[in-house]
Amino acid sequence: MHGCFTRWGAFLVMGMVGMRVAKAFLSPFCPHATAECPSNAAFTTSSSCTGHAMRPPPPLFHLPGFSSARHAHSSTARAASVEGTEASRGVEEVVFHPADEYFQQVPHHYDHVEDYLVHYEKSIKDPEAFWSEIARNFHWETPWEETLSYNFNRSAGPIHVRFFHGGETNIAYNALDRHVAAGLGDRIAFYTERNDLEPIRESGPGGLKDQYTYREALEEVSRIANVLKSMGVKRGDKVGLFLPMVAELPLAMLACARIGAVHTVVFAGFSKEALADRLCDAGCKAVIACDGVFRGSKLIPLFHTVDAAIQLCNERGHIIEHTLVLKRLGGDVAGVHLTPGRDVWWHEATAKASSSCPVEWVPSEHPLFILYTSGSTGKPKGVLHTTGGYMIQAATTFRHVFNVRPEKNDIFLCTADCGWITGHSYVTYGPLLNGASQVVFEGVPSYPDVGRLWHMVDKYGITHLYTAPTAIRSLMREGDEHVTKYARSSLKVLGSVGEPINPEAWKWYHEVRSLGQGGRYGVVEFFGQISGVGVCGGSRIYDGYVGSIKALRHLGQ
């Protein structure tokens, strides 16, 4: 968490500030300022630079508040300083200049690059103090005794990494209760955008809602938690979640965390065998499921998959004791038949449950969730994430990379599924820990037509849109007319995640904000699904890779 760098983190944010796009293969930063390998060359490989000690670059967590005049000057100076090097390598370069509107309208975390560099140096020289300062913004029922300890030497003892040892907290409390206690209970936590464009009917406790305030989310989480406790689920028990992308999925995750249970979310597109493998391997005591869902025009009877997976678990000697079933479709659309004594309807059980549930305070290293790899390279591997370190990382990267400002009525949309780490970090935990408002989207970007994303942008006033290159390319192929019929005037930041984005898709996505309106917005890219690495506004960067802070030392501020 302190200053690590990765070229493999598939995390990209496109803010409306200046950048460069170039076709080049990048290597770790070389600190040697030579003619062949200048220190401000921002990661380009060089055959003339061999044998140098490589070190990672400083990660940036923000979009600093440059004035447009400063940025214009720095762009020219920096372009001249690297022009010869880039030309000799045959790098094709396109420069995108920043928009004044972004700097005028969007607050920044630091006023000057020097302020950021002081913060960065502290993270390297004194990571304990750096992360302690951030962690003190959250509620700890018991303060920690040691911020960070680790051992990677087997001869010195067990391999371990520990954050905030001795501290006790609860991530659900920090995501909900803390904001309600601060007087933000009426702020919207979730808007639910269902698959078929029809409004969701409110039907009281346990019914599906089209939105949740932070207070309503806290009450529903408490009801779910009380239902789980009535099923015998306790601290440390594992709970499997097999739900579509409705607001009730992150609420169920938080309900598990509230009582110290460990959730394992399984992508709702998996087969009965894949689901059974994960439920058995994790040792789940209970499952939270759904009757069914429409994905586009296709009916997916999810509970049939759950029921079959539970039977497979039984055959393998693992018994799932209880199932809580969300009635998403209603009626007999999905053809659900509950098993008495094992299955209960969500709406019936939560209607009887109290809207108040005591918090289970857990150690910082208490397991929060197990998330399985896709299994594309062999047997799925369960990755265990613990509470304290994950809480601070998810909250910090969301805050500084996306720069979402709830107090400015920013609205966030991440189209990722909670069956993957992006959904955990940037649908459930990151946004809520920062008190953000967001849209949870159940459907697909192409249904009922390929203008669906832009329809939602206008409907909710979405300011931050975070989606995948695959979706971007598919929308690009359909033509601009599906974009230009919507205003899109609320957009401030565009993000891409999941894989490196190709230059053509990058440029099209970058122009989405201004298509049909004239004008143009620049873009800043960020990598950091693993590390939280970011790039300062105006730093030269390449499609698919992160840039270098070293270039920013030549801004002449």
Automatic annotation (TrEMBL):
<dbReference type="InterPro" id="IPR020845">
    <property type="entry name" value="AMP-binding_CS"/>
</dbReference>
<dbReference type="Pfam" id="PF00501">
    <property type="entry name" value="AMP-binding"/>
</dbReference>
<protein>
    <recommendedName>
        <fullName>acetate--CoA ligase</fullName>
        <ecNumber>6.2.1.1</ecNumber>
    </recommendedName>
</protein>
<dbReference type="InterPro" id="IPR032387">
    <property type="entry name" value="ACAS_N"/>
</dbReference>
<dbReference type="Pfam" id="PF16177">
    <property type="entry name" value="ACAS_N"/>
</dbReference>
<keyword id="KW-0732">Signal</keyword>
<dbReference type="InterPro" id="IPR000873">
    <property type="entry name" value="AMP-dep_synth/lig_dom"/>
</dbReference>
<comment type="similarity">
    <text>Belongs to the ATP-dependent AMP-binding enzyme family.</text>
</comment>
<feature type="domain" description="Acetyl-coenzyme A synthetase N-terminal">
    <location>
        <begin position="119"/>
        <end position="175"/>
    </location>
</feature>
<dbReference type="GO" id="GO:0003987">
    <property type="term" value="F:acetate-CoA ligase activity"/>
</dbReference>
<feature type="domain" description="AMP-dependent synthetase/ligase">
    <location>
        <begin position="208"/>
        <end position="513"/>
    </location>
</feature>
<dbReference type="InterPro" id="IPR042099">
    <property type="entry name" value="ANL_N_sf"/>
</dbReference>
<dbReference type="GO" id="GO:0006085">
    <property type="term" value="P:acetyl-CoA biosynthetic process"/>
</dbReference>
<feature type="signal peptide">
    <location>
        <begin position="1"/>
        <end position="24"/>
    </location>
</feature>
